[in-house]
Design goal:
Blueprint (H helix, E strand, L loop, with lengths): L2 H25 L2 E5 L5 H36 L3 H32 L3 E5 L2
Antiparallel strand pairs: 1-2
Helix pairs in contact: 2-3
Length: about 120
Amino acid sequence: MDAMSTAMPRATRLLATLALLLLCASCAPTHEWVAPGMGASMRDGDLRECSTIGARLAAQSSWFERGRAEREALWARRPTDRAFANMRLQQAQMFEMRERQRHVDDCMGARGYRLVPVDP
């Protein structure tokens, strides 16, 4: 099997996935953080600070699992082992992203903000 025959199905799957993501993103409502008496610059500063805190806390809580998945992906020899290791690495990355967002939501909520939909 040559490189072109294996690349085409992968490219087709990638295009289908991207099209689905664009479709979902276009239908999703837009939200923003609001708090009484807070301006846009204050909100943006708080969001930057909470994002930094969230990234740090998420990295601390998921460092072990992510490191293990990275080592498995690096040392996998067979294609099936590499595929499973990459899947575990993606799961660890998704867990870290969810944790980061949870910490950002908690931080912004503690500062008096709430997430509300924005009309187009």
